[in-house]
Write the structure tokens for this entry.
Amino acid sequence: MLGSNGTGKTTIVKILTTLLKQDSGTVIVNGFDVAAKPGNVRQSISLTGQFAAVDEILTGRENLIMIAKLRHLKNPRQVADDLLNRFGLTAVADRNDFQRLLSDIRTRKINCVIIKDLSCLSRDYVEVGILIDRLFVQMNVRFISLHERIDSYNDPESVSSMVVPITNVMNDQYCYQTSKKIRQMFDYKKCNGQFIGSYAPYGYIKDPNDKHALLVDHEAAEVVKQIFAMFLNGMAVRAIVNHLNDHGVMCPSLYKQS
């Protein structure tokens, strides 16, 4: 949807998403009137970010947590931690300063970026290419990499040099190989029966003497046995949930906090 400032683009989107009531007329989304049945409309639509992060100041970990919450996944923090561990990205998951740098560039607070070498910018060669060839150019930002002797202002040709993509690919491959080795290590541990998760699943606790071993949590285990027994007897999931709630059984997240 295109239009100059003040033509009503945001207003129309707010009306379509039930955030604003129209002054007149009828609006139908997926067969539902947005004014009469806003709940049905909200169930019919979803959200996606314009960029990789909806909020530019969020870290990688915070973005994963946000997406997990939007998908209504249980234990969103655990989901984020497990994904970061699986792909070997824990070390770069909380680059607050890097996110702040990108935010300041987009808001034109910064017009020059100086780094020691290209790996400091990112080890993803695609991301580096997007930043150098698109974002920095669009925002008229001078880019300097000391080690590779790149200066987009004094020597514009240095940015287009073969040194840049080759170095970026080498950095990317180093990161990929490191991540691959970490995944292989995790696979090896799993094949040997070692637990690699951040948190023990409901019904178990981590062995205080061995973080890769699980012990039965006898209190929670009784609840798990009840759930299996009720399900095998033909009870529906909702009926099991209601039964547990009626008997004051805490959900796994609350039980963990207790």
